[in-house]
Every structure is written in C-alpha cells, then in structure tokens.
Specification:
The protein contains 8 helices and 11 strands. It is of the alpha/beta class. The protein has one domain: 4-Layer Sandwich (Purple Acid Phosphatase, chain A, domain 2), CATH 3.60.21.10. The chain has a 6-stranded mixed β-sheet with strand order 3-4-5-9-6-7, covered by helices on one side. 43% of the residues are buried.
Length: 241
C-alpha cells in the first residue's frame, strides 16, 4: 500500500501533469492533495479539473479559500494577491463551490493531514521554525502528520525532550517520536530545487520517500507572461525559490 501526497500545485499544469505521470509510473493508485491547487500561475481551472477527476481526498489551502470567495483579500504579498485575483476570475461558480467545501484537516490510515498547521488551521500558520513546530505538536494526536503550505520539504521529529528538523530524505518512522512531514510543493518549490516535489508514504511499513520530478517550467513561464501575471512569478520557477 502506497499513498502519493501532493500539495501546493498553484495552477502549474505542467508540473502537475509531470507528477501525475510519475505517480502512474510507480503504480500508485491512492493520492491525497493537501491543498492550494490554485493561485500564482496561469492554469487554475485546468489544474482544478485534473484534481477533481482523480476523485481523491483534497484539503483546503489558503489560496483555494481566497479563490472561492469574493471578499477583500487579506494580508498577502503582491504576487499572492495577483494569483488569487486571477484564479477568482478564471474559475467558474461550480469550481469555486467545490473548493469552498474542502475540509481543513483529515485523518487517513492512522495519520493526520492538514494544509498548514494543526494549531489554528483556519489561520494558516507557517511551520518554519521551532516555535511553529512546537505549537503544532501541541495539537497533534496521531504519531504522524503531513502538511504543505511552506513549499519546503522537511521532517520534524518530536520526543518529550527534543525537537529536530531533519533533511527531506527517506524517513523510517520509529515507534517513539512524533513526526510532522512537509511533502513539498508540486507547482512552486522554494528549496532552491526547481523540480516538482511530492512524497510517497507507505502506511504499512511507515516509510516516506520524497520524489523530485523535472517538468517543462519554460512553458509555465510563457503562460504566466501571456496571462499578464507578474514576471517574477515565472522567474522564480526556474530558481526554485
């Protein structure tokens, strides 16, 4: 039994298609999306259609939530706001309704899944440092939790005495510690690696393997330019930042 965990697609159709092809190549049939299908790049509708066609569990991300609304945007960067506005314009009513109905968190095969943090998940906190991780672990009941949101793959390991941040490599989940595992970003990696990132989890032997997939980011960049979105939005895809 293996589960492909994808997150933060952000309207990048070329990256999503490359990842789905890699998942098929591995023979994995179970997929979970941890949110932020839309935002940033130029293909919110096609990306959302792809994910909906999978019929897999999907969590809500903050970009998904904002794209499904018509209320004023909150405290986001100019790049994020541009992508959210573009998504609002280019999604139809049914797509927005579907996004708005996604849950904030879920449990599957004994693990918890959330887009951002189990500490006030509706506030979209970032788990990027020890404080963010400690606040999250105060609310984690299962031994393992998967998340996205930061676009940076990493593994947090928590015991009563020690909190460690581990490199994103193959993880063998031990019996004692609690784990918080960031699956990385399909459509906008920010760890200086421009390849799409996702994770493969085996609930039977409790292992997690990271996968990096090259994709045609130049086509994504051209689409961003043609859509009139900020130039930086495309440039960062080549740099993985």
């Amino acid at each position: 039994m293996k589960v492909a965990l994808i997150s933060d697609i952000h309207s990048n159709l070329e990256a999503l298609d490359a990842v789905l092809a890699d998942i098929r190549k591995l023979g994995i049939r179970e997929i979970v999306c941890l949110g932020d299908i839309v935002g940033y790049a130029a293909d919110p509708g096609p990306c959302l259609d792809r994910v909906m066609e999978l019929g897999c569990p999907v969590l809500m991300g903050n970009h998904d939530q904002e794209a499904s609304r018509s209320t004023p945007l909150g405290n986001y960067s100019e790049l994020a706001k541009a992508g959210m506005v573009y998504s609002r314009v280019n999604l139809d009513k049914d797509q927005k309704k579907w996004l708005a109905s996604r849950p904030m968190k879920m449990k599957l095969h004994g693990a918890t899944m959330v887009h951002s943090s189990l500490y006030e998940p509706e506030e979209w906190h970032y788990v990027m440092d020890d404080l963010g991780a400690e606040l999250h672990f105060m609310n984690q009941i299962t031994q393992v939790c998967f998340y996205g949101h930061t676009h940076v793959p990493c593994v947090w390991e928590k015991t009563n005495e020690v909190l460690l941040r581990l490199l994103p490599k193959t993880v063998e989940i031990g019996r004692g510690p609690f784990y918080l595992i960031n699956v990385g970003s399909v459509g906008q990696p920010r760890d200086k690696n421009n390849r799409a990132c996702y994770a493969v989890w085996n609930p039977e032997d409790q292992s997690v393997l990271y996968r990096r997939v090259a994709y045609d980011f130049e086509t994504t960049q051209k689409k961003i330019h043609m859509a009139g979105l900020p130039k930086k939005m495309g440039l960062r895809l080549a740099e993985g930042c």
